[in-house]
Amino acid sequence: MTFFGTDGLTSTSANHVANLAKEYVRSLNKELEKVRFTDVFVTIIGSENKEKINKGWNFEKVLDIENNLCIVADVNSLIAWLREAIKERDVKTKKINEMTLGDYCVQFNYDIPEVPVRQAKITREEYISTLSVKERNKMLALGAKAAVFGKFIHEDCSFSVAREELVNRLLADTELKDSGRDTMIYKYVPTVSQEEVDNCYFQLQSIYRKAQAELNGYNHKIDEAVRQDAVQKQSEYNVACAEYTAKNAELEKKFEAYKVAELNRIAGLKIVIPNDLQSIYNTIVNLGKK
Q1: 276, pLDDT greater than 80
Q2: Exposed, middle or buried, 253 (CB in 10 Å: 0-12/13-18/19+)?
Q3: Roughly how many angstroms between the first and final C-alpha of the chain, as a whole number?
Q4: Which DSSP symbol is given to 184?
Q5: pTM above the 0.90 mark?
Q6: How many Cα atoms occupy the beta-carbon half-sphere of 5 within 13 Å?
Q7: Angle between the 133-153 and 158-171 helix axes, to the nearest 10 degrees?
Q8: Per residue in 168-199, pLDDT tens?
Q9: How far apart are CA 66 and CA 289, in angstroms?
Q10: Going by C-beta distance under 8 Å and a sequence separation of 6 or more, which residues neighbour residue 118?
Q11: Sorting pLDDT into bands at 50, 70 and 90, what band is 288?
């Protein structure tokens, strides 16, 4: 705030005064650059006439050198002061315009809202790892039982093939293979009744379905736990996002209000003229006035 106060010049006025001062000092510098201490005469050979082509400064002008140099120095000081003040105002304005929300929060010790992080959903394997030893062993046992029984009784598997063969042999218990003297007669004699085989089949099927149903129950429990975990974590994430958005919006509102107020304050600052420069300032602003 070295350059500013409640009373003084606007940036536009300060720039105008600086330009006037620059023009004013230019003529003084030109005159000082022409300093000479001798008269210069030129004569043409064979002629007695001589002509003065440069006039040296008299004692009065020599005495005035110090004063003019002081004036130039004062004017340059005024120009430098005004230019630095304008530059400082521009720096302050630029700093506010380039200020980020993060800068604002740090400056005024506001907590910067953390961007929500979506929690990883639990996997089937992770959930299964939380089960007790008894439950995990039960699942493995049911899986093994269903696999063994299913592989034995399913279509095209051992028991189903043998069962179908029994039915076919009950309908045709004799089979001829090859021909002529090589003909062989195969006679098929059931060792158990069809009813006994069917009863065994349905019993095995019941055991398989029971094991599969119980295993499906465990799988459903796992799938439901995984689904609920995903729903819960999505819900928590949505709430966190909403809170983050609300906090961020509130901070943004405060931040924008601060920037507007600060820019208005800077715009309202006036460039003051130091007492030591007041005299030369008055000289410059009164140039051309009667």
Answers
A1: yes
A2: exposed
A3: 35
A4: E
A5: no
A6: 8
A7: 30
A8: 888 888 888 877 777 888 888 888 988 998 89
A9: 26
A10: 233, 234, 237
A11: low
